[in-house]
Amino acid sequence: MYLKKCKENFTGEDKNLFERISFRTKSLIKRSKQNLDIVDIKDFYININNFTPLYIIKNPLYNYQSISGIISYSLFGKVNNNWKKGLLEPLLLNCNKIKTFLPNWLIRIYISSNIDDSIKKQLFLSGAELYVMKENNNNFWQGLLWRFLVAEENKTFIISDADSIINLKTINKINYWQKSNKKFFRIATLHNFFIPINAGNWGGKSINNKPVIPNIKTKMAKYNTNWFGSDEAFLSKEIWPSFIKEGYYEGSPLLSKSKIIIIIILFFILIILVITIIILLKYN
Fold first, then answer.
1. What is d(CA 57, CA 130) in angstroms, rounded to the nearest whole number?
2. In angstroms, how far is the first alpha carbon of the chain from the final one?
3. How far apart are CA 38 and CA 45, in angstroms?
4. Are 187 and 266 contained in the same domain?
5. For 214-240, what is each residue's pLDDT tens digit?
6. pLDDT over 90 for what percent of the chain?
7. What does the alpha-carbon distance between residue 250 and residue 134 come to, in Å, rounded to a whole number?
8. What's the pTM value of the predicted model, to 2 decimals?
9. Which string of b and e fits 81-111 if b means at least 16 CB within 10 Å?
10. 279 and 201 in a common domain
11. What is the rounded CA–CA span in Å between residue 126 and residue 274?
């Protein structure tokens, strides 16, 4: 109610900023509550079809039998300058970093068929393997979950965000995890206070040459995932119980739980102060 009342006092850029903060906050709450609706049988089969690649572009740089693992990305949406700067450029940079620091790892991108072939070629020449997917105009955010399909294979995998630059700390954590006896992997972030698995910071590995999560496509297809954050709600609901049951390796937490609580409290106090100051300035 307070946020709704405050919105009435915002105009222009301030209103856009407020709407972005409000959108992210609502999405975070929705994800933490795991608000996923089960679809009917017709939509279930539509989803199964949408989670099946139209075609695959294998990259001859890799011998699939000898790779150590797969780093999986989703790439979709309307291509413009912001998209290229925010998603394509970091992804191309990651391709080069991964080839240097994780030379036996395959880079796989689940990419929308709507994206121009010139961009597909650019990613292919950078060392990526492409799984071309049908982008559903009525279910835009479903693309967030494409990258999870790699879990059906009997290969170690890491799920990452296209706009997240991989660094040496992350690579070291991956290497430590590979030496452990833990099946699953996650990198601790502030997100984990609300959501157990960050959609772009987790992975799994095959035990006894078996698929890591053999039925993940079926699990994904039964839900309506057409909202931002549905990927993390899905992970919380369907995959986190497997983490608990089968064990997971966690990268060293950035902060202790008590410090995280303090930071979150201070963050919300700061938001309230900023909103209050803006309102006071507008009335004065």
1. 5
2. 23
3. 13
4. no
5. 999 999 999 999 888 899 999 999 999
6. 63
7. 34
8. 0.81
9. eebeeebbebbbebbebbeebbeebbbbbbb
10. no
11. 44
